């Protein structure tokens, strides 16, 4: 087990135990049962943010649907920035992955004859979204986690926080991690490492994301020399509850919910999204894509047609006409959340909503097998950018993405690990360096002139001002300057908590350092993209510019620590760039 | 990776008076003594019947002793507690269905009390015959 | 803002390196209608005392991290509002019946070791290939186990269970509810294997139907019901073992 300087070594190490991480772990165990797999996760796996996904998971299974249609919806949803070879692989493998999960016990909602049921979803031309009422992510995660308990060769390091990837000569050889309960720092050797740490919504002040979504994997990869891709594309979900930012699933609109402005008017009809009809029409009105719906909200605010709330302007989601029976059967969690956090019953009352940061389209640059440019380093799920989501992700594509690319990365990493070389001794010196750095931060007893929470608040406010639904160069430049200043102040952050046991202040400081790097990449990448595409809308460059920007942007970390933005082409196979048409 | 050095809390002596449900839990645990007493009492009664009318009368005299009456009353209360618990538990344990529809818990419980009443009435009828 | 009312929090603190045992610390936090106990703890952490440790993540009652004893009751702090506990002070302690790692953080390794023992995964006699499509399951068959599949592993039921408090070997409400969830799943054939585990002394028999687990469950899972159903199964099994010849069981 122990090897030289390592506390333990494994063939493949997963960082993160959510949907993608657990799917990858099982894929490795099934590819080669002799492989030694470990999962290190900063929370118990069933706490991972996959648990919060509500609406569903897209996969072609219904009669009359086709892989091509799912692919086209995804390509047009991505504003043609998604890689079409990746999207074709994705739509082809998604149904099989969802069926596999069915075999592992996921309680998918059913039709009366016992077959899996599907529902409509935003930006999708067919009903193809599998769902487990409106707790799809919760059920998927628990099915995966409980299934993973079957595999004896799977080691889990629960509540372990990875602080660094050990990389030598362009190859990954392991990680350094803090064991949270004891504060002990371990270096863990691994022939291959897969990053599955989810998104980075906490870079923003108002987000559906959980407290744990701090872009850890993105920052780890970035510092280890793997570039981040398309970081400017941040998805605002159109319907979050004010104050808490709790997500009200798109399924609420798919089941027939309406968005009303302050005048009780279905305002989406004014934004080239179709004409209102009493029953939901696919790819139209409330079932348009998320980027367009969130943008429509901003225009309603400008026109003064939204309602006021103590937490700023809001619109209303109207489910009243759906009736109690349907809401209880298909949207029970929506009702539960509204009753608890808004003290209103959507059966009889309007739900106040506003756009809220929800998902990161960008992430660690990978190929179709989850491989990053660093040998042995893989990424999957929201952490990664393959990219199937391009400039805007369609609702219900992210859960199957975790499964398809989690499994792909797992299989690729398993193959890689079988032929990998042992770690050179220089890696142990690197690990020792990291241990020393953390010891200093842990035991430094530094009073500190700066507080984690203060810098975090300022970072979040900066990101809201400069990387919102609409963006412009002056605010983004100002944001870049503020972030640079915050990076400097970060050096003065003190950890007042000197206990080694479950030191959440130390974790918050490490997370903040990660978020600052990610935030910087978002703004730098955003400044470079002088066009409007999908979720990246520039008021100073309002049109899509395929000539200059039908490319992915990669952010590398320069030798001085500052981001360098480059480009790689988008893969187009069968769908040449065209106009995104919804509702007509 | 490493053994957690966690603080082991101990239950306070009076934790069980904090909630009615905890109190009932401890009472049920305690009831075992009285249920055992009931069994013993019945055995004594049965053996007395076997030994003839004299012995039976002696036991009845003993049973009329105030202390024994009190003990029996308490024991009866505990047995009632057990009965109520058991009846409340039954609908949870059985997923009773009639014509494909789940029988409501209240109906299951009510039928048990009806059953108890019928059996009790039968026993009373037997004894007083 | 000056007129804003406040409420006291009495928080249990424990630092293993320096404290012989848990002690109390008082904080004053703004009393806002939309604030939960978790919001108040975060206010303490961000503004008053960064050294306070507690677990939390989704703040929408689905990840199961933030369970604590609030005024003596096991609660998800993200769903427990300050105004419902006014005028305070509100007592916040780590979940009862667990060892304390630090402040409000409990040690849940015991549950993590128990969970795999009940085999909470689909067990089949014959695995059907994914290529042959899904196992059919009618909405009624789904309904049979749905309630038991809602468990978020928040540990509130363990904190409420006096049997677990007295006998830490008791496998406990959530684990048994999950065993029942798979037993009742029409796709599963593993009931016998799970019964072998739960028929043991530390299995279902410790439970005397206190019912607190079901009462505190934030997801209406009804673990108490699951345990009673298991008792019936275990009793039937025991009777069969006595009555039937070996081969017929």
From TrEMBL, chain A:
Residues binding FAD: 16-21, 41-56, 216, 382, 398-399
The record's InterPro entries line, in alphabetical order, gives: FAD-dep_OxRdtase_2_FAD-bd, FAD/NAD-bd_sf, FRD_SDH_FAD_BS, Fum_R/Succ_DH_flav-like_C_sf, Fum_Rdtase/Succ_DH_flav-like_C, Fum_red_fp, SdhA/FrdA/AprA, Succ_DH/fumarate_Rdtase_cat_sf
The GO terms describing molecular function are:
electron transfer activity; flavin adenine dinucleotide binding; steroid dehydrogenase activity, acting on the CH-CH group of donors; succinate dehydrogenase (quinone) activity
Q: Which cofactor does it need?
A: FAD
> Membrane topology type, per the record?
Peripheral membrane protein
**Cellular component GO terms, alphabetically?**
plasma membrane
Q: Which Gene3D superfamilies match?
A: FAD/NAD(P)-binding domain, Fumarate reductase/succinate dehydrogenase flavoprotein-like, C-terminal domain, succinate dehydrogenase protein domain, Succinate dehydrogenase/fumarate reductase flavoprotein, catalytic domain
Family note: Belongs to the FAD-dependent oxidoreductase 2 family. FRD/SDH subfamily.
- Name of protein: Fumarate reductase flavoprotein subunit
Q: Which organism is it from?
A: Nocardioides iriomotensis
From TrEMBL, chain C:
CDD domains in the cross-refs: fer2
**InterPro entries from the xrefs?**
2Fe-2S_ferredoxin-like_sf (IPR036010), 2Fe-2S_ferredoxin-type (IPR001041), 2Fe2S_fd_BS (IPR006058), 4Fe4S_Fe-S-bd (IPR017896), 4Fe4S_Fe_S_CS (IPR017900), Beta-grasp_dom_sf (IPR012675), Helical_ferredxn (IPR009051), SDH/FRD_Iron-Sulfur (IPR050573)
Q: In which pathway does it act?
A: Carbohydrate metabolism; tricarboxylic acid cycle
**Which reaction is catalysed here?**
a menaquinone + succinate = a menaquinol + fumarate
Q: Where is this region: Disordered?
A: 1-23
- Supply one GO BP term: respiratory electron transport chain
What the record says about family reads:
Belongs to the succinate dehydrogenase/fumarate reductase iron-sulfur protein family.
Q: Which GO terms describe its molecular function?
A: 2 iron, 2 sulfur cluster binding; 3 iron, 4 sulfur cluster binding; 4 iron, 4 sulfur cluster binding; electron transfer activity; metal ion binding; succinate dehydrogenase (quinone) activity
**What is the name listed in the Swiss-Prot or TrEMBL entry for this protein?**
Fumarate reductase iron-sulfur subunit
Q: What is the lineage of its organism?
A: Bacteria, Bacillati, Actinomycetota, Actinomycetes, Propionibacteriales
What cofactor is this protein dependent on?
A: [2Fe-2S] cluster; [4Fe-4S] cluster; [3Fe-4S] cluster
For this chain's record, the cofactor binding note is:
Binds 1 [2Fe-2S] cluster.
The species this protein was found in: Nocardioides iriomotensis
Could you say which EC number(s) this protein's record lists? 1.3.5.1
Q: Which domain of life is it from?
A: Bacteria
Q: Which UniProt keywords apply?
A: 2Fe-2S, 3Fe-4S, 4Fe-4S, Iron, Iron-sulfur, Metal-binding, Oxidoreductase, Tricarboxylic acid cycle
């Amino acid at each position: 087990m122990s090897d030289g300087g390592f506390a333990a070594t494994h063939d493949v190490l997963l960082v993160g135990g959510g949907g993608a991480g657990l799917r990858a772990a099982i894929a490795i165990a099934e590819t080669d049962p002799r492989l030694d797999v470990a999962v290190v996760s900063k929370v118990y796996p069933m706490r991972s943010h996959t648990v919060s996904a509500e609406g569903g998971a897209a996969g072609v299974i219904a009669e009359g649907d086709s892989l091509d249609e799912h692919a086209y919806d995804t390509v047009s949803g991505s504003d043609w920035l998604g890689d079409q070879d990746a999207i074709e692989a994705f739509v082809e493998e998604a149904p099989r992955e969802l069926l596999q999960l069915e075999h592992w016990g996921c309680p998918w909602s059913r039709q009366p004859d016992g077959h899996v049921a599907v529902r409509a979803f935003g930006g999708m031309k067919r009903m193809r979204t599998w769902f487990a009422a409106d707790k799809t992510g919760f059920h998927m995660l628990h099915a995966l986690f409980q299934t993973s308990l079957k595999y004896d060769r799977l080691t889990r390091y629960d509540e372990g926080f990875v602080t660094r990837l050990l990389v030598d000569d362009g190859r990954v050889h392991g990680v350094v991690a803090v064991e949270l309960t004891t504060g002990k720092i371990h270096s863990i050797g691994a022939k291959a490492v897969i990053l599955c740490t989810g998104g980075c919504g906490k870079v923003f002040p108002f987000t559906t994301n959980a407290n744990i979504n701090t872009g850890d994997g993105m920052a780890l990869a970035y510092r280890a020399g793997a570039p981040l891709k398309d970081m400017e594309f941040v998805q605002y979900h159109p319907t979050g509850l004010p104050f808490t930012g709790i997500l009200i699933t798109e399924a609420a609109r798919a089941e027939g919910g309406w968005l009303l402005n302050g005048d009780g008017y279905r305002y989406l009809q004014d934004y080239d999204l179709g004409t209102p009809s009493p029953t939901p029409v696919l790819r139209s009105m409330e079932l348009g894509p998320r980027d367009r719906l969130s943008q429509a909200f901003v225009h309603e605010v400008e026109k003064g047609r939204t309602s006021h709330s103590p937490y700023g302007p809001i619109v209303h989601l109207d489910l009243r006409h759906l009736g109690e029976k349907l809401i209880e059967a298909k949207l029970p969690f929506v009702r539960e959340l509204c009753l608890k956090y808004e003290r209103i019953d959507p059966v009889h009352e309007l739900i106040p909503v506003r756009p809220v940061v929800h998902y990161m389209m960008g992430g660690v640059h990978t190929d179709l097998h989850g491989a990053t440019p660093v040998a042995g380093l893989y990424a999957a799920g929201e952490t990664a950018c393959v990219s199937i989501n391009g400039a805007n992700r369609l609702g219900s594509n992210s859960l199957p993405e975790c499964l398809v690319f989690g499994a792909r990365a797992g299989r690729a990493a398993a193959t890689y690990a079988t032929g990998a070389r042992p770690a050179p001794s220089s890696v142990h010196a690197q690990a020792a360096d990291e241990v020393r750095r953390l010891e200093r931060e842990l035991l430094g007893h530094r009073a500190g002139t700066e507080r984690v929470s203060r810098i975090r608040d300022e970072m979040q406010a900066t990101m809201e001002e400069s990387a919102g639904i609409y963006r412009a160069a002056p605010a983004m430049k100002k944001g870049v300057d503020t972030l640079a200043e915050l990076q400097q102040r970060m050096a003065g952050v003190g950890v007042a908590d000197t206990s080694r046991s479950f030191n959440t202040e130390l974790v918050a400081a490490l997370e903040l350092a990660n978020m600052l790097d990610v935030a910087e990449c978002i703004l730098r990448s955003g400044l470079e993209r002088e066009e409007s595409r999908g979720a990246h809308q520039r008021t100073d460059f309002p049109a899509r510019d395929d000539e200059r920007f039908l490319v992915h942007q990669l952010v590398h970390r320069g030798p001085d620590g500052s981001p360098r933005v480059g480009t790689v082409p988008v893969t187009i196979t069968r769908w040449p760039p065209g106009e995104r048409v919804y509702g007509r | 990776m490493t053994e957690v050095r966690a603080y082991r809390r101990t239950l306070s002596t009076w934790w069980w008076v904090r909630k009615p449900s905890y109190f009932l839990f401890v009472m049920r645990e305690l009831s075992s003594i009285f249920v055992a007493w009931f069994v013993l009492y019945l055995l004594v009664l049965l053996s007395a019947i076997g030994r003839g009318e004299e012995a039976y009368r002696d036991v009845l005299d003993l049973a009329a002793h105030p202390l024994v009456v009190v003990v029996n009353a308490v024991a009866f209360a505990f047995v009632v507690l057990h009965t109520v618990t058991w009846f409340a538990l039954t609908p949870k344990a059985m997923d009773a269905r009639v014509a494909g529809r789940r029988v409501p818990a209240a109906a299951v419980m009510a039928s048990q009390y009806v059953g108890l009443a019928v059996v009790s009435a039968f026993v009373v009828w037997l004894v007083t015959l | 803002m000056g007129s804003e009312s406040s409420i006291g929090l009495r928080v249990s603190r424990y630092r293993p390196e320096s404290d012989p045992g848990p002690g109390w610390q008082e904080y004053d936090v703004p009393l806002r209608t939309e604030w939960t106990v978790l919001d108040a703890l975060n206010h303490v952490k961000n503004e008053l005392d960064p050294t306070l440790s507690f677990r939390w993540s989704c703040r929408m009652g689905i990840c199961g991290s933030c369970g604590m004893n609030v005024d003596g009751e096991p609660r998800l702090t993200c769903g427990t509002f300050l105004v419902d506990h006014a005028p305070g002070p509100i007592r916040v302690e780590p979940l009862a019946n667990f060892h304390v790692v630090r402040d409000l953080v409990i040690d849940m390794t015991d549950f993590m070791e128990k969970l795999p023992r009940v085999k909470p995964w689909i067990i089949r006699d014959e695995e059907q290939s994914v290529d042959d499509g899904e196992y059919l399951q009618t909405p009624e068959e789904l309904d049979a186990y749905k309630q038991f599949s809602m468990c978020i592993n928040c540990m509130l039921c363990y904190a409420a269970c006096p049997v677990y408090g007295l006998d830490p070997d008791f496998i406990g409400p959530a684990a048994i509810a999950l065993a029942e969830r798979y037993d009742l799943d029409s796709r599963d054939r593993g009931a016998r294997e799970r019964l072998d585990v739960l028929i043991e002394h530390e299995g279902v028999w410790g439970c005397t139907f206190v019912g607190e687990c079901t009462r505190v469950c934030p997801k209406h899972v009804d673990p108490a019901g699951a345990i009673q159903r298991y008792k019936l199964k275990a009793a039937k099994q025991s009777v069969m073992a006595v009555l039937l010849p070996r081969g017929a069981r």
